[in-house]
Amino acid sequence: MSGPAEVTEKAARAAAPTRGRSLARVATARRQWIVMAVLLAVACYAPFQLVPFRVFQLTMVLVYAVALLGLNLLVGHAGQISLGHGAFFAVGAYGSAIMIDRWDTPHLATLPVAAAVAFALGLALGLPAMRLRGLYLALVTLAIAIFLVPLLKRFEAVTGGSMGLTLGKPVPPAWTGLAEDQWLYFLALAVTVVAFLLAHGLLRSRVGRALHAVRDNEAAAEVMGVRLSFYKTLAFAWSAMFAGAAGCVYTWVIGFVSPDSFALTLSITLLASIVVGGLGSFSGPLLGGLFMMFVPSISQDVNDAAPGVIFGLLIIAVMYVAPTGLAGLAGRMTRSITKILRKE
Question: Which residues cross the membrane (predicted)?
Answer without folding.
Answer: 33-50, 56-75, 82-100, 106-127, 134-152, 183-203, 234-255, 261-279, 309-330
